[in-house]
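Hi, here's the filled form for the chain we discussed.

Project: internal
Contact: R.S.
Residues: 740
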Amino acid sequence: MKHIIFVLFLFVSSVLFAQQELPILKGTVSDSKNQALVGALIYWDTGTNSAITDANGKFEIEHVPNAKFLYASYVGYALDSIRINSNADVHFTLAAGILLDNVVVSHKQTSTHTSTLKPVHTLIITESELHKAACCNLSESFETNPSVDVTFTDAITGAKQIQMLGLSGSYVQISRENMPDVRGLATVYGLQFIPGAWIHSIHLNKGTGSVVNGFESITGQIDVQLHDPIRMDSLYVNIFGNESGRMELNISTKERFSHTLESAFLFHAKTLRTKHDVNNDGFIDMPLGDQIIAMNRWEFRGAENMHAQLGVKGTYFTSVGGEMGYNPSQIHSISNPWGMNTSILRADTWFKIGKTYENMPWESIGFQTAASYHNQESQYGVRLYSGKHISGYANVITQGIFGSEVHAYKAGLSMQYDDFAEVFEEIAYDRIEFVPGLFTEYTFTPNSQLTLVGGLRADNHSEFGAFLTPRLHIKYATNTKYVYRLTLGRGQRTANIFSENSNFFASSRKIQILGNGSTYAYGLLPEIAWNFGGSLTRSFTLWYKKGTISFDVYRTVFENQIVVDIIQDPHATVFYNLAGESFSNSFQTQLDYELINRLDMRLAYRWFDVQTTYNDVLQKKPFVSEHRAFINLSYKTPKQWVFDYTLQWHGAKYITSSTGYSDNNHKENMSPSFFTMNAQISKSIHEKLDVYFGGENLLGFVQENIIVNPQNPFSETFDASLVWGPVYGRELYAGLRYRF
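And the returned structure, exactly as it came back:
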């Protein structure tokens, strides 16, 4: 399959790179108050070629032969058009509050696309893309995307983790509308606390990202844009259920109190109460439990171009797994069945306010702050873990220009506060981190082809001292067909070894920490890494159909890493500071193309080389697939039937040797390669109602003997953490979406 994909890429590339280039038209879109309209759709009267305005309302679009009129469209505003007679820049001023009847726009916008304007390689995943699969939460939002891997952490807890550029999700900065969100003790379970039905879009950046967003990003950033009162439907209901008995309900509604004040309420509930043991190993396949999440957010648009947001969110989560006979109310004893029981209470709040200047639209100032409280109580067999995390964040930023828009800048101050209180096996691990910082970012745009962004942060950690975070991004576009990007940056973070590796609690492995003897940060040093790489994106039109082909290469090199060593001792998980090399090399190529009318194809191949020094020996990192191939097909009929199909090939993974096991419960050093297949059919009955039916892992491949020695869960060889393949077999689901 790898060879077939390479041949397809070579064939398409040879045709595409020979095509003639067309001139580029640039422009802006704003409202009657000269405020930039972000996300406005720009397209030609021929129905071909389109663009989306960026954060400053700017766009670039390629000329189309025989096209005469350029259109601008934005929700809540009147459609506008301009006759184009030259290559001069154009400006749309859209009028608000006009209702249009009987207007049909014949244009197609892809559900996932790469921004051609941003200097950072940014993949934008829209709500339409999320509807292609059973996207119940953020961890399940990448089923149709080859850039992010999603795997189960173990065979008992049901928790999922993501991987990017061959490294775990803890090296990815996950934010909510550019504010820190999934981090700290919520690194793993926090992915489940963002319901998929709440997501408007996801912006996925590869590389270290901007210094404006902090210093913790190493392999990338995932920024989640949630539904807000301005863009969302007045009422939205999503009901989901699968054959295992998992049920989910999402309800979102909004209220407009005045032309300046709007509010939205979003509610999510999930439950699973039926026990299953399909593989007959005596353990519950899917953990039981409940989850309730509610959010209330407010939007205020005041005079003099002021905009403010306020939000609060609460989360309640329980999960129960283990042996079929386990009862959560039983005494924690080896004489009772082995069980896992986790409960989490979490609260989040945030506030944003910003102001732009009507006579100087290039200048603005903003302030944002957020706070969270996370309380977790967990039991794994006879092991007990508890963790509390109180977090605070503040950021003030101003942006402007030096003389002209060729030289732009951003500058500001930030503060990150974290109070951790963890107890594992009766040992307390407490720490407080206070990190004030300042940052500046300079953008040089001498012409439409070149953009250079250089940023520098200076932060002071209350325990580890002062450090600098430099980052550089370069984008060069010969036009909208060829876009080249280069990136270089440093990232630093403090590891939370228990929450990020709680899968090893689902085993009898001893937890050993080879630190300096202190309980602060477990006696370990912060993780520091450099990430650099680049990408090439090529847009094309072949046989009157649009498409893109991309290539990207990244390398991550660690100065220090907290090594999670399960290799040297099959009965232990050992944590220690890196002593030697640790790196990740990544290559990915992807082709998106409309094969025939309404049939879209996404084809990708990815290669990883991830190695770390374990006990003075440089070795491959376990549970990372070196090769992966991917194809996604999506077809929409004129009668609003939508068919989506995804097939993935996962190459073999290096897994740990089990030379220490004495009861023949062993695993080979390499896993087999395998395929997974997902499909979904959906139907729009009318504008307000969609129904969908689908299946996950339709081929039914599951990892055999996924739990080592399940008959003796309190023995030293019991281990449910060595997961390299699917935990569950085929899973059918159905649901409906209603909007008003």
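Let me know if anything looks off before we file it.
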